[in-house]
Amino acid sequence: MTIIKQQDLIDSVEDALQFISSYHPIDFIQAVHAAYEREESQAAKDAMAQILINSRMCAEGRRPICQDTGIVTVFMKIGMDIQWEGDLSVTDMVNEGVRRAYGNPDNILRASVLADPAGARKNTGDNTPAVINMEVVPGNTLDIQVAAKGGGSEAKSKFVMLNPSDNIVDWIVKTVPTMGAGWCPPGMLGIGIGGTAEKAMILAKESLMDPIDIQELRVRGPQNRVEELRLEIMDAVNDLGIGAQGLGGLTTVLDVKVRDFPTHAANLPVALIPNCAATRHAHFVLDGSGPSLQTPPNLEDWPEITWDVGPSAKRVNLDEVTQEEIETWLPGQTLLLSGKMLTGRDAAHKRIQDMLSKGEPLPDGVDFNDRFIYYVGPVDPVRDEVVGPAGPTTATRMDKFTDLMLGETGLMGMIGKSERGPLAIESIKNHKAVYLMAVGGAAYLVSKAVKKSRVVAFADLGMEAIHEFEVKDMPVTVAVDTKGTAVHQTGPKEWQKIILEKKTA
Q: Is the pTM of this model over 0.90?
């Protein structure tokens, strides 16, 4: 009989979550670096360079890889011969570990979990509760896998109940382009097949805990249908030419994981869950000897990457930029932004919409006329930081507010991640505005461009409050120009054609 102490589990969960906030799994870094080395699309290569540089910076500075520090998912295999020492439930022990990890003053993590999701959507303040999956198994140890899943990639999860005769690969190839780039490729795809609807989703999520090993599989060759599917899906998805950050390129996915389970004869449940460029998970075992603490990797495991914005990059003074100037910006062009910008996400946009509909003035300090808005919910700063990691959030969530913002506030442009939808692109074109893209998965790198930060409105919204950032040489890409040309449409089409030509040559 093994005795597992309550404090050992709490300490182990806290340590694992702090660890994965700052350290990518080494297999992920190696896979991104390999993709970077073989990438031929300059836009995609630049995006992966920023991801790799950001990762090393986070490992050195022990700060979050992404401003979205995720919702915690836990898989626990509890040995039947375990005895617990403590007065909390297992769920409460895990949540106490989460609470302590996210409130650690040396490395504050963003609290993103909201209670009453269909109602008030009030932030719980400590990122609890975690989503916990428990299984009782033979043995006398406690096996735990912990992940922090970002909302951008989780939002792109898909499920379908296929007919038994339907082709799984065809469905995935049709579905992945509909996910856009909000899941921040390059990443992994977790596929769950069989069971029931909820079982397929759990299989897909759990599969993403496995290490990246598809290149080893390719060398030795598949030995069963699941391994054949992994290779078929990976090749078919990469042939789509979506590329890093959806800009077009050779690598969209670094690995595909597939888990299956027996299912009803009439059903073929299939779940698809992507993992983003902020892949974060850890595995540990408690055997009664004390807490299981993570060992920091060797910084020599990170490649030395430098990123040069190139001679075509244009420096922009946001405090003086004019309509005439933004009309000269070209799709795919790199800009280095300096000056002041306002920030705002979903909750701030909704509040602005409500105020304008009532004829109320916007708060003092919130003047969007001839200015840019950055879609971001930053991590709180620590020590001498101006702001914590502050990477972009998925821009498509703000599409329904775009025409209002451009038409009624005098806003000139927007900065976010991933593509814009048809309505937003049409509004950008009609108002001769622009949409600029920052790299998702490079939050700490982006934050270093922020030289001053202050909250100007809606402080009660926490990380969704409106801030004023003063930035210096913040790198962005022109993703939708004033004519409505969108690189997230043109880039993948171009690279899908290039990849097809390579295969048929």
A: yes
